[in-house]
Amino acid sequence: MKVKAVFKGIMKDWVGAAESDFDLKPGASYGDLLREIHLKFGRNLPSGLWNRKRKAFDESVVALVEGSGEKLDELATPLREGMRVDFFLLALGG
Amino acid sequence: MNGYHGKFLMVDLTAGRLGDLELSEGTLQKFIGGAGLAAHLLYDRLKPGLDPLSPESPLIFATGPFTGSAVPMVSRYALAGLSPLTGFWGEATSGGQFPFRLKGSGYDGIMVAGKADRPVYLLMNNGKAELKEASKFWGMDTYATQRAIKDEAGNVSVACIGPAGERLLKYACVINDHGRAAGRCGLGAVMGSKNLKAIAAGGGRRPSWADELGLKQLAKEARAVIKGDLTSKGFSEYGTLISMDMGMVLGDVPVKYFTKSVFPAERVSGQALRQQYVIGNYACLGCPVACGREVQDFSPELKTVDGPEYETAGAFGPLCLNFDFNSIIRANHLCNAYGLDTISAGVSIAYAMYLYELGVLKKSDAGMELKWGDGEAVVKLTKMIIDQEGIGKLLSQGTLRMAKQLGRDPEEAAQVKGMEIPMHDPRAFHGMAISYATGPRGACHLKGDYFNVDLGKRVPELGIKSRDRLSADNDKAAMAAKYQSLKDLYDSLLLCKFSPMSATMIAKALTLTTGWTCSPNDLLAAGDRSINIKRAINNRLGLTRKDDKLPGIVARALGEGGTAGVAPDLDRMLKEYYAHRQWDEETGKPRKEKLLELGLQQAAKDLYEK
Predict the structure, then answer these.
(1) Which ipTM was obtained for this model?
(2) Residue B249: which of A11, A81, A56, A14 has the closest Cα?
(3) Does position B545 have pLDDT exceeding 80, yes or no?
(4) Are A68 and B562 in contact (CB < 8 Å)?
(5) Is A93's CB within 8 Å of B498's CB?
(6) How far apart are alpha carbons B179 and B219 in whole angstroms?
(7) How many alpha carbons fall within 13 Å on the CB side of residue B489?
(8) pLDDT at B375
(9) pLDDT (tens digit, 9 = 90+) per residue, B317-343?
(10) Structural domains of chain A, count
């Protein structure tokens, strides 16, 4: 299934891409998407952005489903065909 | 005593008299410093019905125990008194160099009362203090005032009012170190009412630290935490505007006077600011983050101008459907130069545009069209507020008084207890709804900034966890109350809200500074005490449970964006919040036993025995 990852704000600078399309197996999860992102961009990521143990971005990164604003936390969360996931740095306030 | 000088400067402007107010270690341990200590000092001088702009109304400048130490992100001060905007407790904080200099002057803070018979400024330096003639500075903007006083007084840092404070505008602020603002609650007007133009502070006096080496080591560790903290890196890179695009997706950024939440965020983001202008960073003293922005080569008249913070850009921007950075920067500059709170100004302007669309305000009332998205109108209205010209006089009253004067339903006024709602829509994070409704100074996004919790910033030591942001379930209100207490304590410690130090690390820093044994739970207890004494002040000024509410304009669900169809269940959260705080559901007062448990005997007596 096709899923789009969009890297917003400073995430775009850090990942080195504004967005990327992924072709995942049917029934793929959020964790599967993260693994693909890491395979594609892992070498570019600045230190601390990737949590090797959890195989996910650091907890300072927020993943939101486009449209609903649903926050993806659990790696087992199933994704849907055509879904777009926006990645932001958790920096809110001021 | 460690961490403090143990004294405030007492200033009686009516008599022109200066003296010392000694503070016991017991008092400091109880109230810590900053706004918490200010609340204690104000409490004893409080009389119901006290006019915030009367000579008897005290105004307090306070540093904290960390101020002047090696701990990073601590160069902040608190300003407190009664708010002319709300009539209740008022406080604001600001960073820069001024807080270090204020403590370096040999005092932990200043309590000002009375009214000078002519404009004066207070000069404090290395244990000495004097009142100086300031008639020649009256009428000057804040930037010119700072320059002129530095020319006269030498190596000092200056906190001052501009013409907005001199004209007693209800949301006038106090500006220090170029364009840093103690913005909210209108305390600039309190300063103006006393004919006090500025405080100029200098000197290198530092208190002793309980464990100086230990504190230096902890400061080093704290710097490493900051260096590794991605959020700090983000603020460093793009300033507080970094949050604009994520805020839009979540429905956090209010749009078109709180009636919309979808807008082209990329036009007013931190990235857009950097692409459109030459940007420099600004840091408070000792801060490795440097979240402040300076716009260079802005215009022939303004070579370097302060960049807008997120709140300012939100209020003059999307809230007015305005996506023109040039006008946002100019409106921000006017507020900084003349000393006006950008949030209350922007919300009042957006309300005027809302009323214009409804046909309540007409072109003949405003002297111009008030169309959504008109950046030039935003700038012009800001200046009209400052100059008290035409419709600017109405807008300078804030939204609640605007609604009343125009015979509108007060539910339309985007405020809590009279203070305008900041740029975090409470529909996007229901914990913010309870924080706004119960905040000691009205709608306050700083205690607590619960949006950060619901996005994943936990406080494990205190059991504060991330939950569904659009729900009141899972002890949301009790957790928001705890977080509110913790963040209130930051304003007593005078620790930047962006500090990534853990509660354990903060407690350790306080131990090493003062010698007291402190745990995260002790921090929470001190925060609870601070919240409750401010609540008691407000209760004595007439605040009841019915004041703990959100206006209809932000309580109704929106039909679009990240919060579509969802509104916070405030009644449910208030019940839980009151139970957690041990506040009386009928009267809104802290229960007597709670006040006694916190050591607030006088408040217990005043609220229950008089």
Answers:
(1) 0.94
(2) A11
(3) yes
(4) yes
(5) yes
(6) 27
(7) 24
(8) 98
(9) 999 999 999 999 999 999 999 999 999
(10) 1
Q: What is the pLDDT of residue B360?
A: 98
Nearest CA-CA partner of B431 in B504, B486, B491:
B486
Whether residue A60 lies inside any domain: the answer is yes
**Furthest C-alpha separation in chain B:** 67
The residue with tokens 């009253």 is B397
- Grouping H, G, I as helix, E, B as strand and the rest as coil, residue A72 is strand
**Partners of B122 in the beta sheet?**
B131, B199
Confidence class for position B12, pLDDT limits 50, 70, 90: very high
Task: Tally A–B CB contacts below 8 A.
Answer: 93
Tokens standing for residue B148: 């002129």
**Residue closest to B160 by CA, chosen among B200, B217, B202:** B200
Asked whether residue B361 falls in the same domain as residue B437, the answer is no
The mean pLDDT of A9-27, rounded to a whole number, is 95
**Percentage above 70 pLDDT, chain B:** 100
Q: Tell me the shortest Cα–Cα distance from B232 to chain A, in angstroms.
A: 8
Q: Is the residue at B412 inside a domain?
A: no
Convert the pLDDT of each residue in B448-485 to its tens digit. Answer: 899 999 998 999 999 999 989 999 999 999 999 999 99
B431: chain A residues, CB-CB within 8 Å: none
For residue B231, being part of any structural domain is answered with no
Assess contact for B435 and B424: CB atoms under 8 A. no
What's the CATH code of the domain at B108? 3.60.9.10
Full domain range(s) for residue B92: 7-202
Residue of A nearest to B231 (CA): A91
Assign residue B480 the CATH number of its domain: 1.10.599.10
The average pLDDT across B23-46 equals: 98
Residue B123 reports pLDDT greater than 90: yes
Whether residues B263 and B294 share a domain: the answer is yes
**Domain assignment of residue A18, yes or no:** yes
Q: Which two tokens stand for residue B238?
A: 């793009």
Instruction: Give the SS3 label for residue B51.
Output: coil
Domains: count for chain B: 3
Q: Is-contact A44 A16, C-beta < 8 A?
A: yes
What is the phi/psi pair of residue B533, to 5°?
-70, -35
Whether A70 shows a pLDDT value over 90: the answer reads no
Name residues whose C-beta falls within 8 Å of residue B2's C-beta, 6 or more positions apart in sequence: B207, B208, B209, B210, B513, B514, B515
Give the DSSP H/E element, type plus range, for residue B9: strand B7-12
According to the model, what pLDDT value does residue A67 have? 75
Q: Give the largest Cα separation in chain A, rounded.
A: 41
- The answer for B178, left when phi > 0, alpha when psi is -120 to 50, beta otherwise, is left
Distance CA B417, CA B256 (A): 22
Distances (CA, A) of B231 to A43, B218, B291: 21, 20, 11
Provide the pLDDT for residue A68: 76
Domain match, B471 and B373 both:
no
Residue A36's CATH number: 3.10.20.30
Length of chain B in residues, anyone? 610
Query: Lowest mean pLDDT: which of A56-70, A76-90, B397-411?
Result: A56-70
Contacts of A10 in chain B (CB under 8 A): 233-234, 237-238, 242
The CATH code of the domain that includes B294 is 1.10.569.10
